[in-house]
Amino acid sequence: MTTQLNPYLNFRGQAREAMEFYQSVFGGQLEVMTFADQGGMGVPDSESDQLMHSALSVSDSVQVMGADVPSHMEGDFANGRIALSGDDVDTLRGWYDGLAAGGTVNVPLEKAPWGDWFGDLTDKFGVSWMVNIAGTSG
């Protein structure tokens, strides 16, 4: 069982450009998924080619993730989020529940369209966290 702590950067329409830049700096394999790839996910047609998710895998221990924040999502996303991911269900679910205590659950930890379990929250100190549990269990 594994877990990882990854920086997750947010952009307003510049995620692809930024992630390609980071790939030019760090090397590695860049995988991207657009909102259109996931059926649109409620974003305007003008934003459907923006990145819903991207991951730059540089090594086993270095991964940078990023996405475009849709225009309908209000708030300051400039600081990004901290992403916890892996396949250690018990550890990741426990961390999600612990971080949610006294905070705000933005997305409950539940089955996501891409097949993993995903949740998003803001802890009681205002820090934003995402948890993704790989695979079909959860």
| CATH topology heading | 2,3-Dihydroxybiphenyl 1,2-Dioxygenase, domain 1
Order of helices and strands: EHEEEEHEEE
User: Count of DSSP helices?
Assistant: 2
Characterize the largest beta sheet: strand count, sense, and whether it forms a barrel.
8 strands, mixed
Helix share, percent: 10-25%
Rg, alpha carbons: 15 Å
Structural class: alpha+beta
- The end-to-end distance, rounded to whole angstroms, is 13 Å
Number of discrete domains: 1
Q: Which residues sit in consecutive blocks of at least 5 with pLDDT less than 50?
A: none
CATH superfamily: 2,3-Dihydroxybiphenyl 1,2-Dioxygenase, domain 1
Top-tier CATH class:
Alpha Beta
Output the strand order for the largest sheet: 2-3-4-1-5-8-7-6
Share in β-strands: 35-45%
Number of strands: 8
The 3D shape can be described as globular
Mean pLDDT: 88
Quickly give the CATH architecture.
Roll
Domain Glyoxalase/fosfomycin resistance/dioxygenase: 7-131
Pfam families: Glyoxalase
Protein name: VOC family protein
What does it look like?
The chain has one domain (3-133): 2,3-Dihydroxybiphenyl 1,2-Dioxygenase, domain 1. The chain is built from 2 helices and 8 strands; from the N terminus they run βαββββαβββ. It has helices at residues 15-26, 89-100; strands at 3-11, 29-34, 51-57, 63-68, 81-86, 104-111, 117-122, 128-133. Strands 2-3-4-1-5-8-7-6 form an 8-stranded mixed β-sheet, with helices on one face. The two termini are 13 Å apart.
